Amino acid sequence: PDPGTLASVLTEGVKNTIGDSRVKVTYEPEYVPAVPPAMPDIPPEQLAGMIKATVKVEVLDGNIAYLKIQHIIGEEMAQKVGPLLLEYIWDKVLPTSAMILDFRSAVSGELSGIPYIVSYYTDSEPLIHIDSVYDRPSDITTELWSMPTLLGKRYGTSKPLMILTSKNTLGVAEDVAYCLKNLKRATIVGENTAGGTVKIDKIKVGDTDFYVSVPVAKSINPITGKSWEIDGVSPHVEVPAEDALETAVAIIQLR
């Protein structure tokens, strides 16, 4: 008689059977499939303002850059508002002697944004194979490589880079953290991440209001041959998420 209870019982059954917490059964009579938003036809200044609202930028004591990112923008958006983001954000943090990327609240992002972020912390040459993503519906594997040219200057490979994580860090942000961790470019501080996926489809069950959420793509790291999905990204220094910033600053000062 209670569809919501049935959905949660089914979800528990699926989780216990296949050991994948990302697969969920839900009852959603009001569900409307999300349509990927087209690039909004608004001035770049306004777009940049929207992005600024999701990014917090500070230069902390000790000349440490702090960037709190909640959404990782994709290639199309980056190309459209890139020059403005350089002015608003990147030019402020480029002269610093160390950087902290705060992904503790990062729960969304675009796959095409991964090479952009990783490339700012690597050299222009040689190009690095940073990730491979297999998409099951299309049966296509896409290789993600570092980029030879970028808007603005790179942060480089020598200055300390810390990435803060929490148990809520999800999806594309997990991928970025895992790539930079295995390139030995970043120190991860905080909690084990959520263990999400790069892409989920929600499939309607027959002529009902039940849906099954299923991962339909898989990220495979070329260095480890493994994925961060399901298990999440483990930190180098494990501390409660609320203590991660203070710990990262202390590590930088110690170094």
UniProtKB/TrEMBL annotation:
The keyword Plastid does not apply. GO terms for biological process: proteolysis. Gene3D superfamilies: 2-enoyl-CoA Hydratase, Chain A, domain 1, 3.30.750.44. Transmembrane segments: none annotated. Keywords: Receptor. Residues 43-240 form the Tail specific protease domain. SMART domains: TSPc. GO terms for molecular function: retinol binding; serine-type peptidase activity. PANTHER family: INTERPHOTORECEPTOR RETINOID-BINDING PROTEIN, RETINOL-BINDING PROTEIN 3. This is Interphotoreceptor retinoid-binding protein. It comes from Schistura fasciolata.
